[in-house]
From TrEMBL:
This is TatD DNase family protein. One of its GO terms (molecular function) is hydrolase activity, acting on ester bonds. SUPFAM superfamilies: Metallo-dependent hydrolases (SSF51556). InterPro entries: Metal_Hydrolase, TatD-like.
Amino acid sequence: MTSADLPALDAHAHIAPDVTRDQITALGDAVVFAMTRSLHEASQVKNRRDHSLIWGLGIHPAVATARAAWDPERFKDLLRSFALVGEIGLDRRGGDWARQCSIFQEILTIVRSEPVLVSIHSSGATTEVVQYLHDAKTGGAILHWFNGDDTDVKRAIDADAYFSVNAAMSEDQIRRLPRDRVLCETDFPARKVRSRRPADTGRIELLLSQAWGTSPQEVRAATWWNLRTLSERSGAIERLPEPVADTLLYL
Ligand SMILES: [Zn+2]
C-alpha cells in the first residue's frame, strides 16, 4: 500500500452501539475509533467484530449516570475484549469533580500494564489530566481535543502522550503539537467540528498540511505512522482488528 492509498483514520468519534452493517459499509475502508460513554454501552459492543471500527471501553467524565454505574470489577472484566479505552478523563463543568478524579485515577491504574490505547477527555482540566498521567505512568494515551498551554503540552509529551486533533481547534493550538505525536479525529457528532460523518477527516488534514507545510497525503501517512509507533509501544497492536494491524505493519 502506498501512502496515497491509506484510508482515513479517525481517532475519536461516537458511534451508536447498534450501528448497522450498512452504516459501517458506508464508511468505506476508513478506520474509526468508536468511543463508548458508559459500561452499559461498552457491554453492548464488546462482542462486535467490526473490521474498521476500534471500539472503546469508556466512562465519560461528564455523564452522571455513567459515573454512578462505575464498577472497577466490571470494567476489568470488559477490558479483556477491548484494544481501546475511551472515552475517559476529566471535565471541569461535568459535575461531581471528586468522583470524576477518583474514577479517572482508578482507570489509569487498571490500564497501566494493559496493551491498550486510551482516548482521554480533558475539557477545562488539561493540567490535572496531565498530572494524573504522570502519576499513573499510563502508556498508550491519546489526549483528544487537547487545549493545554505550552507547559501542559510539554508535560504531556514527558508522560509519552499523543494528541488527536480536529478541525474546530485553533491554528495556534494545532501548531503547538509536534508532528510525530498527532492523530486526526472528528469527534463526530460534535457540531462544532462540522464533520458530516465519522472518518470525515479531510478538513483537519488540510489544516495540518498548512501548519506543517506538506501535502494532505503526507499528513495522512504521518498520522498512520504515529499510530503504528503508539500501538507498538503500548502493545495494543496485538489486540487491534487484524486488517488495521496489517495496515500498520505494511506501512
Ligand atoms: Zn468524545
